[in-house]
Request: fold
Amino acid sequence: MRSRKPFIIFWPQYFDAKRSRGRGRRIPKKFAIDKISLNDISKAAKNLGYNAQIEKGYKYSRTWWEDPGRVLIDTKGKQKSKVLLEVAKEIRKIQSKT
Reply:
């Protein structure tokens, strides 16, 4: 089994505006994103200077019937909650440009 350290798992469900907190969203509604993909999360993390890896074939436990995959991000010792907000804000910037 591969060690994930120092990477932390980020699921697309954490950012999904259509989900409630009880269904897996981890950020405030005002920062949530309507259409989120693994590539969006990875690109935003890389823009912020984090090392990110996409892993497909993994299922979020609250939505085991979906197969979105996950993103591993090296947060460089920062708290996950702070990095979640940073990444969400960066995704919004990226999506507003396109």
